[in-house]
Amino acid sequence: MQIIKPEEVLAEYLPPLTDHEALVEAHRCLYCYDAPCTHACPTHIDIPKFIKKIASGNLVGSARTILEANLMGATCARVCPVEELCEGACVLGAEHRPIAIGRLQRYATDYVYERGMDVFKPGSPTGRKVAVIGAGPAGLTCAGELAKLGHSVTVFEKRELAGGLSTYGIIGLREPVGVALAEVEMVRRLGVTIKTQMELGRNLSWEEVRVQFDAVFLSIGLGAVPALGIPGEEQVVDGLEFIEAAKLNPYRLWVGRQVAVIGAGNTAMDCATIAKRMGAERVTVVYRRSEKEMTAYPHEYSFVKNEGVEFRFLTQPVEVLSEGGQVVGLRCVRMALGEPDASGRPAPRPVAGSEFVLPCDQVVKAIGQEKPTLAQVLGLQTEKGYIKVNDDFETSLPKVYAGGDCVRAKGAASTVMAVQDGKMAAFAIHRRLTSSVGAAAD
Ligand SMILES: Cc1cc2nc3c(=O)[nH]c(=O)nc-3n(C[C@H](O)[C@H](O)[C@H](O)COP(=O)(O)OP(=O)(O)OC[C@H]3O[C@@H](n4cnc5c(N)ncnc54)[C@H](O)[C@@H]3O)c2cc1C
Ligand code: SF4
């Protein structure tokens, strides 16, 4: 029998660049004026500047350039869809190979984290207090930027560990837990108080927060994976819990021999990868639309295909079959695509008489996340179920700001966008708390 060691099969996929590799890569950069790679980065990291600093051996300076624009630079170096962003825009991409910007960013940021070096200091105290709800990339960035500006910041996080999906949700092959936790500690060292196992609406009251703090930033992300609404649902494994167990408790993760993964976004690709690498003989992704409509990034899709994952497109699960409490199959129906639905994609319709059973002993659902329900509880205006904010990230309640996945009514949610929201919201909060008008209104 093959013995699987999760710490090996789920370890970070790309090795770090060696000093020599980093130098060679940095010297390939053309240091473009008005660089397209910087424009393509949602946090606008000055990419030629940080690469030039690597080329000249100034790694602390390089990390500072990255972290000035993106406080979660070590996470983003690993999880950003660089093919779609900076590397996709690199002028060398058309005829040569684009610069490996993500890996160079990882090289520079790892250098400071591995040595426990801090590149920023807390600012001079302003006497103003800000509460941040949720310690994911958006909340940590907002908290860190506010601390750099001298505000007293307390982050309240409902989970045991801070870091949000960087800690619990992003597959270890892309980002090990240690990288996310090192960023949490960096934010703590900026003077931010992070209180975990504190959940707004459960053991933390909204009234208390509003009274005790001058401003609030909500960065609560999204909710659980929605229900499939099919018979046998109780046998289905939640995709986010599956990934979390693979990251934090891999020896306790049970993986079937034949696994069906429902959904075709990046979370589904991650679940399928984990199942395959943890020893499943057959992993089948089941998706009701076609290959063209799937939301996973193309590079993620080709990655899982290389891992040996199979795909059943135009297939809708209708029932989870089990015998004696054990899953034995997924009843499915074939689909055909019709007119576009509210999402703008062709609506799938069942084909009469096309039912079949996909044999499997585990079903994992990865069909997105619920909208943030807290918005209604707090009486905030929403847009398509997400918290509505203005250009300053302020919600319908004065001095209550929000950012990250919980406001992402448009476009795909990603870590780098959450970081940019957190940073811009911090600047807006700072302007509000230090302007004579904003301060006088307190
Ligand atoms: C499986 C998966 C894989 C992904 N892979 C990638 C990837 O490779 N690249 C990429 O760019 N993006 C990826 N994403 C998206 C990315 O993780 C998110 O866009 C990003 O984490 C959003 O950050 P956030 O701070 O808004 O929310 P989150 O990271 O979700 O953090 C929200 C935090 O708020 C806390 N919280 C919620 N409610 C409360 C409350 N009431 N009180 C206190 N705390 C609360 C939560 O516990 C959590 O820690 C992935 C997402 C998933 C689900
Ligand atoms: S576009 Fe490419 S070559 Fe130009 S600065 Fe950016 S990484 Fe360097």
Describe this structure in words.
The structure is a single chain. It is globular, with a radius of gyration of 23 Å. It is built from 18 helices and 16 strands. The protein is α/β, with parallel strands linked by helices and 442 residues long. The model has no long low-confidence stretch (mean pLDDT 95). A hairpin with a 2-residue loop joins strand 9 and strand 10. The protein has three domains: 108 residues, Orthogonal Bundle (Fumarate Reductase Iron-sulfur Protein, Chain B, domain 2); 166 residues, FAD/NAD(P)-binding domain; 133 residues, 3-Layer(bba) Sandwich (FAD/NAD(P)-binding domain), CATH 3.50.50. It starts with 5 loop residues before the first helix and ends with a helix. It is 36% helix and 18% strand. Strands 3-2-1-4-16 form a five-stranded parallel beta sheet, with helices on both faces. Strands 5-13-6-7-8 form a five-stranded parallel beta sheet. Flavin-adenine dinucleotide binds next to helix 9, strand 2, helix 10, helix 14 and helix 17.
By CATH's scheme, which homologous superfamily of the largest domain applies? FAD/NAD(P)-binding domain
Number of helices: 18
Bound molecules: flavin-adenine dinucleotide, iron/sulfur cluster
Rg over C-alpha atoms, rounded to the nearest angstrom:
23 Å
Query: What does the average pLDDT come to?
Result: 95
Our estimate of the beta-strand percent is 15-25%
Q: Give the domain tally.
A: 3
Shape descriptor reads globular
Given as residue ranges, the uncertain stretches (5+ residues, pLDDT < 50) are: none
- CATH names the topology of the largest domain as FAD/NAD(P)-binding domain
Q: Which CATH architecture of the largest domain?
A: 3-Layer(bba) Sandwich
Strand line-up in the sheet with most strands: 3-2-1-4-16
Bin the helical content.
25-40%
Class by helix and strand content?
Answer: alpha/beta
Major sheet description: 5 strands, parallel
